[in-house]
Design brief:
Blueprint: E1 10-12, H1 18-21, E2 27-35, H2 38-51, E3 52-57, H3 64-81
Parallel strand pairs: 2-3
Antiparallel strand pairs: 1-2
């Protein structure tokens, strides 16, 4: 099935484990947000701001593939360091 031309797709929360989102407070990580519609990205960034350290605009939806690929890296870090919730933090932003 194809999406209607008016459908706005945003990718986010790829690298945020469920334990971070259900921990009772804000997830201690940044959320990368991707989409081809800037207004839709802004709306999801606001949602991410409410439940994590912050939402970070990652640009076009095609960039989401890079965030998805990081999931296996975070799983390996969790195993190596015996933690359950390694996350992403983007530095250098105001």
């Amino acid at each position: 099935a194809s999406l209607d031309a008016s459908t706005r797709v945003v990718g986010a929360f790829h690298n945020v484990g469920s334990q971070k989102l259900h921990g009772g407070g804000k997830a201690d990580c940044d959320v990368l947000v991707f989409g081809d519609d800037a207004e839709a990205r802004r709306a999801v960034i606001e949602l991410a701001n409410a439940v994590s350290n912050r939402g970070v605009d990652g640009g076009a939806l095609a960039n989401a593939a890079a965030a998805e690929a990081l999931t296996s890296v975070l799983i390996a870090i969790n195993r190596s360091y015996k933690v359950k919730g390694a996350g992403i933090a983007i530095t250098g932003l105001a």
